[in-house]
Amino acid sequence: MAKQSGSNKSRLYVPEPPFRPGDTPDYSHIAVPAAHTPPRPDPLCEAHETTPHATSLIRVLRFNGETQGDWAPEVSPELMRRALRDIAMTRAMDERMFTMQRQGKMSFYMKSTGEEAVSVGHALALQDTDMVFPTYRQQGILINRGASMKEMMCQCLSNSGDPLDGKSIPVLYSFKKHGFFSISGNLGTQLIQGVGWAMASAYKNSDEIASVFTGEGATAEGDFHYALNFASTYRAPCIINVVNNQWAISSFQGIAAGEGETFAARGTGYGLATLRVDGNDVLAVYAATKWAAERARRGGGATLIEHFTYRKSGHSTSDDPSKYRPENEPEVWPFGDPLERLKTHLIFIGEWDEERHAALLDECKGVVRETYKSAEAMGNLSGETKVNDFTMFEQVYEHALPHLDEQKRWFAQERD
Amino acid sequence: MPQMNMIEAIRDALDVKMSQDSDVLVFGEDVGYFGGVFRATAGLQETHGLHRCFDTPISEGGIVGIAIGMAANGLRPVAEIQFADYIYPAYDQIASEAARLRYRSNGDFTAPITIRTPVGGGIYGGTTHSQSPEALFTHIAGLKTIIPSNPYDAKGMLIDAIEDNDPVLFLEPKRLYNGPFYGDPHAPAKTWRGHELGEVPSGHYTVPIGEARRLSKGEDVTILAYGTMVWVAQKVAEDMGLNADILDLRSLLPLDIDAIEKSVKKTGRCVILHEATRTSGFGAELSAQVQERCFYSLEAPIQRVTGWDTPYPHAQEWAYFPGPKRVGNALRKVMEG
Fold it and tell me: Which of B57, B69, B106 sits opposite A395 (nearest CB)?
């Protein structure tokens, strides 16, 4: 038995989320800033000038459809309609794939519902040649950059149309031609790799920057520290994005980092520029990304952006969120839905209406349905995947090594 | 022909590649201005510039992490991990990332990185400066693990590693940096001067990854060794008057199994040496493969000579080290069997 003098007043503290299943969630205590955004400094300002931005929230879109604040970007209605379409398309694809997973067509799927504006707004503000190091919830970037949806679906179906020949689980895409780095299932690892990629870009005097992603949960990994530290030391031209969607599978964000400070504030101690942005506000995400990209490209180094959003669905098809949080929590989350907020704005400025919106949703649904049909025709898990099993021996090394050739022969005999 | 010790040969390999290819960058803890704690990068920053050879934070996971990202962006990084004992924070980046990137992206992205790191005991480094963790890496598909035993091979293998399009772990037996070591710490230290493998051609040449070197040709027994143990094997076999077929494996993965099989089928006897701990050591893999391929040629049970299954002790360094006595006992046993 440990000695108990009574002088130590510390008791083990384990943080708990405010609401669990059965509770009535009430987020009225989260003040949605009415005055909106902190001022927009020059992108080449001293990093410490962004310290206030790490604890406030950059917002552009008001719920009534107005924009305000000096972060409001000058964007054309065309660009905003494109953002709307990308968000809607991402959502439609997620819906379809989730349903098809439930029908046994694929082993697994991960939706990005509720946080599509982070990927879409971010991608719209980057150049297509900038390399993103995504997590598994950035499919909106691929949609925005015009990746083949059929190839994406075939990857999830692990069929004969899968560019990865069935080697990776669904959603762990790799699209070098779209500046989309191969997604790792080990979380956080790609952060420091993206910093290295950016260092190489600077070494080569290239104009390209890197943009790396993590969820708030994996900021607890050492790799997050490596990334911030190396980005600071070598002034790497990159953007480090923390998508704070409140939930890491079943653990609320207070588990990842305590409840004392924001995730954006993590960057302050490293001397990085820090922005905290309403991730359900696609224009705010766009504006913050533009600022950080300009800073990186002009030699100002890395920016840490916390995208404050909410994961409306489960982590993946493998978990039931009603087991760890109130079922209606997504509806009462006080920052609204990114698709609805952009739609409201476009209608407010007279560039959109309900009929066109309904037509857009129908169109996305139709595109997804037809694309899925052609993708599934190339094989699926409940029927035949049509993937050649022998490809599992390929791409272990550039050239097959003798021991692998031998094992391939053994496998062929096993098949005879 | 220039005479070099192993440090000079490694530095020369880096210098040759950095001169040839501006994509080759060298970095790690203390490698820049100072030139590395073992001096393997001395002068490279002065010759090639601050951007080509630089210091990093004390962060092995970070060092390998940036190397992967740089390689994915077209460079050929050569990262130094100051001691292999410090490599574990980088294990995730090596095992889950560098080694898997080509596979998981089906060749879309690759990580042609070289990681150099000193291994092995013999310098009173104790538990944290003496380890031989090769078996933790030969178990990883997608990675190559190699270990030279002399200056000539060190230069040629390092150049081949840098030019390889897959990640390579290049282990440097630190006890051999200044000269061959025959297992007796009390004998006067030998340098590489005058040794034929201390003659290192200037300029570019490669020693291909995947080929063992036959150190001596014999009919009595096959000795499989790598790193420091190569020279201990040679000395003990000579002292015992054995005609041993000694294979310096040089490359653990890929393994030159054809050379091993040929030799054991000829001699019918096999002794395996390594400095690393015994259980699940690379010797177990070698023993299994020899047994699978040469069972009907074996005249005696295969013998393994290794370090003990303890951390590498400090004051008891030479009690741990698989020295001439332990090697001699195994050779006698295999010859009697």
Answer: B106
Order of strands, sheet of B221-225, starting from the edge strand that comes earlier in the sequence: B213-216, B244-248, B221-225, B270-273, B303-305
Handedness of CA A187, A135, A323, A98 (dihedral sign): negative
Answer whether A198 touches B (CB < 8 Å).
yes
- pLDDT-derived band of residue A71, with 50, 70 and 90 as boundaries? very high
pTM greater than 0.95 (yes/no)? yes
Strand ranges, E, within A1-134? 131-133
Report the distance separating Cα A155 and Cα A354, nearest Å.
34
Q: What is the pLDDT of residue A317?
A: 94
Nearest-neighbour CA in chain A from B217: distance (Å): 25
- Substitution target from A167, A175, A226, A228 for chain B, most B beta carbons within 10 A: A226
Write out the E strands in A360-411.
none
Residue of chain B nearest A397, judged by CA positions: B142
A278 touching chain B per CB within 8 A: no
The ipTM assigned to this model is 0.97
Report pLDDT digits (tens) over A17-40. 999 999 999 988 776 776 657 999
B143, burial (CB in 10 Å: exposed 0-12, middle 13-18, buried 19+): buried
**Who among A182, A186, A403 is closest to B96 (CB)?**
A186
Residue ranges and CATH numbers for the domains of chain B are: 6-198 (3.40.50.970), 213-336 (3.40.50.920)
pLDDT digit string (tens) for A149-204? 999 999 999 999 999 999 999 999 999 999 999 999 999 999 999 999 999 999 99
Number of Cβ within a 10 Å radius of residue A29: 7
CA distance linking residue A118 with residue A141, whole number of Å: 9
Contact list in B for residue A209 (CB cut-off 8 A) is none
Bridging pattern class, strands B168-173 and B144-146: parallel
Whole-angstrom distance, CA of residue A289 vs CA of residue A21: 36
Calculate how close chain A gets to B157, using CA atoms only, in Å.
Answer: 17
Residues of chain A with CATH 3.40.50.970: 47-385
Query: Which residue among B70, B77, B105 places its CB closest to the CB of A164?
Result: B105
Q: Name residues whose C-beta falls within 8 Å of residue B256's C-beta, 6 or more positions apart in sequence.
A: B210, B211, B212, B247, B249, B250
Homologous superfamily, domain A47-385: Thiamin diphosphate (ThDP)-binding fold, Pyr/PP domains (3.40.50.970)
Kindly give the parts of chain B with pLDDT less than 70.
none
CB atoms within 10 A of CB B240: 16
Return d(Cα A166, Cα B312) in angstroms, integer.
Answer: 43
Active site residue B129: yes
Catalytic residue among B48, B129, B186, B274: B129
Q: Report the SS3 class of residue B99.
A: coil
Give whole-number Cα distances, A181 to A117, A212, B16, B66, B174, in Å. 20, 9, 32, 14, 37
Burial label, B26 (beta-carbon count in 10 A; 0-12, 13-18, 19+): buried
Locate the chain B residue with the closest alpha carbon to A193.
B69
A263 and chain B in contact, CB less than 8 A: no
Confidence at residue A32, expressed as pLDDT on a 0 to 100 scale: 76
> What pLDDT, on the 0 to 100 scale, is given for residue A29?
76
